[in-house]
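Section 5.1 Outputs to date
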Amino acid sequence: MNFGSNSPLESNRKIFVARFPELASLLCLETPESTQSIFSSIPKEYRIEKTASGLPTLSVRGTYLHSRYNPLRDAERAVSRADSFTATGCFFAGSGLGYIPEEYAKKFPESPLVLVEPDIYVFFSCLSARPLEGLLNHPNLILAIGIPAGEVTSLLEQTNLLDIPSYEFPALMAPSRSWWDEFAILRARNKKKKNINANTLRKFGKLWLRNMCKNLNEMQKCPGIESFTNLGKGFPALVLAAGPSLDRIVPYLPALSKRMVIIAVDTAARACVTAGIEPDFIVVVDPQYWNWRHLGGLSCPNTFLITESAAWPAVFRFPCRGVFLCASLFPLGKFLEKHTGTHAELGAGGSVSTSAWDFARHLGVTQIYLAGLDLGYPEKKTHFSGGLFEEWAHDDSSRQTPTETSLYRRLSNAPLHQARDYHGNPVLTDTRLQLYVWWFESRIAQFSLPPTITLTPEGVMIPGVSIAEEKTLLEFPIIRSFIKERFSKVSVEQDDSRKEIFAHAIADLMKTLDDILHLAEDGLAAGERHTFGKTALEREHALAMLNRIDKKILNHPAKEIVAMVFSFAEESQSEDSPKDPLKATKNLYTALVTAVKLNISTLIKFN
């Protein structure tokens, strides 16, 4: 194998991920002699054979991955089919001997090319059989070799390539069929999560915008959760969610609070107060008024409140020891934080429980215990007794429509299906809650330490979570005084020194929005010139201008703002968008102008 005088893999040009250090070394070696020992490790069932055309083909355990006649000609034909490959990029499921990815690299020299091969010996065979300069020197190549399926989905998510078109040829996937089956499930979950996040932005975008603009004063003064980094070292933590199984744990909370750090989600805070304790932390990241209502009327002067800059404004007036901010989940908030100092991030998996679990990790605790995280409806119940949901049901009840009717309707309105609890018993859940299960499963697989243990096994089982009984926790030493002393060191003083920095950040945000507005207005004008242009040359110039504006918007330095504004714009467009591309572009730019103006006017109103 000889790649020429230069190393084929330049780290500043492409991404390479592998579980095998020898493979990383192999790709950077320049002499064929140094590769011999690695190639000799390829098992005998991986057979490279010469075809009728003189080119090599590969069979694995009797299955041929390519044609036995002319694999290169087949690759050229495959890539020439316009419906199979486009300049958008391509995800190749399996490498084989690299014929098709290499042809794609020739035809689309600037497009993203993701090559994933779970079987290390298939890729070794590929490297030993053919020179691959054209493929390995592709400037936008991502190689993922011999790594777990979950890491590939994370890689696609981090590189913004989750929706990249795929080329899946059964023969190339055959050596690792079970791996690809697992990957298909994980990729579908990630796409579903991405769609939910996009829908969440469309649904709550205006609310987030209004809340954040109202909270700008608090945003510039409140300290961040980085004040608590690893401050829980040596302590166990109990994360309380508001599932029906919490009822069984509430009587133990006073004793448990003496032995561990207590972290409650907003919906479970009332259970703590009812039990006569104040949690060490309450986590609230939902922007809606109804989530604030779970805290309304409560007082926890010894509790730290962990929230987000776009939370319902009344959250910042909650009587507590101090309000601390995690990194914003909202694009405008992220933009401002880049200029004023970014806070530590908490995972957002659609449920506040995911953020609370991640905060426990942020504290650096030794174990994370869960209670009330049912992610389903054990015994066909929706929430713990005495929670606000139940109180509302009681308030709305009458002789004809008792509380039970209300709770039944809430259950019957969701598309339910059966899952299994930690003991293997059936428990009802729904699609939304199942997505939270997937989030916890993937995060726990990624971060196995500290271990996560549930006290309420009647909920839907999360792979990677073990079981413990609350009685065993009562044998833990009493450490409340140590917890109190450790957290007493955290300053709750608000910082008034960042006003000038914030003023500059907001001015920059306004300038960015104004820039996007002018681009959208220029796009509308170019569309008009194309529609009403008197000559073909005028229309051609207008179309070229539209293409330039499209590129400027898509490659704008403030991409997160553009993405948010596009979400607003898409929300205001008709579902029956026109098939004519120019009309669709005009509608999008019109909606974009409206969305940007909304952002600017809201910022001006509350700033």
